[in-house]
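Researcher: Batch entry, complex prediction.
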Amino acid sequence: MENWKDTVEIITQEGQIAVPYTWWVGDTGSRFLMALRDEKKILANRCSECGKVYVPPRKNCGQCFVDIDDWTEVGPEGTVETFTIVHFNYPVQPVKAPFAYVLVKLDGADVSLLHLVRDDIEKLGKGSRVVARFSENRTGSILDIDSFQVIEGK
Amino acid sequence: MSRPVGIVGTGQTDHKSHRPDVNGREMIREAVTRALEDAELSIKDIDAIVIGNMDHFESINYVDTWSVEGSGGVMKPIMKITTGGTTGATVALAAYYHVASGLFDRVLAIGWEKNSESDTTAAIITCSDPIWDRFSYSGAIPSLATEATAYMKQYGATQEDAALIAVRDRNNALNNPHAHLQRPITVDDVMNSPMLAYPIKLLDVCPRTDGACAVVFAADGVAQKLTKQPAWVKAGSVRHTFTWFGDSTDYDRGLVSLQRASAEAYKHAGITKPAEEIDVAELYLPYTYAGLKWIEDLGFCGKGEGAKFVREGNTDMNGKIPVNPSGGVISTNCIGATALLRVAEAAIQVMGKGGDRQVDGAKTALATGFGGCFWSDVVILGAQKP
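Model: Structure tokens for the complex:
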């Protein structure tokens, strides 16, 4: 049977989407990032209806659909709810492997914060106690927390 | 058979060039909250949600899931619909289908955009074929400019004729507290604005806006209990024509998708003389020349008569068929919300809630959506249940 590739060259065209983005963090998120950057504090807020403490803070409770403006401070220590250790490198990862992605329930919060553990990853376990280590150069981003340090591992 | 469906509430943000105080989902919630207030409902009363915006504009791929905190969609049926510029009208029609099917009684339609978060042209050109058509021609301006030059050549319309559309819509916007651009302009202002791609000048085209819109659709039997005057959906029609830009160069035929969509909608709504039987039109006119040409495709006037029809004041607030009392797309363009704003503004007119922009006694209103490679959505609303 005749193969089309015998007579036609396979042509492809390279491309990439190059769309620059600038996302407005908004007043609620910006207040959180300012506290990280300027005071090394982790702010959260509490829904007046269900009492859930959110970190990062939310402008409204998704469950109760009411505005939230009851601010509180959480952490800097917390408990690892779950984690995975990353062994491969990929450009969009924030740091070089090996490192761990962790979901940390900060003391005082009801939801977990997604973050990183870089050091002592072999000591990580569910229930490990960790503490936020702040970056030297803070710019107003979630990575103003450099990573979490294991203070009580498995 | 489908059942009658009415719009019972609308909500929209106060549209701005950029909204640094809120992120996307927080902005969505403003419109949702206002729509629920208008319908005197709580989020618990909503059975399902349809949401839409432009792909790549905010780099959020799963808007339906990402937005639930703002849309109120936590643990509810929610889906995303995106059809380019027509997105908002398609979202409205999908919400209408949800209710008309009998499966849901109260459905929320949401359209939104944060144009300030990206480069509109860089994002919008991803609508077109990457190998053959993805030059910046597929951005907002050049393809419309070629349509305009063809129209001018065919019928002798002038740049001054087109400028009248911007003047009309921008001055109407002064009556709409939600409108983005709220500065009156003159024909001279339009003529003296910078040329972008002939014959389109800066003031001939829509702005980029941050904003959101939400509309509540309710079933026959439910709608009447929520409001004295629902805006009943009398017809909805969608027509997509070309995907290759080169296939649509027969501009002399007009905007075929709008001709076909409106013809079908008129048939369903029992309309034979649109300019006489429709009381107000909220048209998706992304640039001024559309305000001359596309009203011909809608049958408001004959071929080549658009400029004369507009010049004689027929589309002014006190004219035969007022067009864009809200100020239209030329004044506010949060793209994924833009066509839903047309539907919402048409509903506002039928419900008699237009305030300073109300057309007296409006009973039948037309809304359109326009997008991508010259395709069209048409929605007709009426005060009487069909």
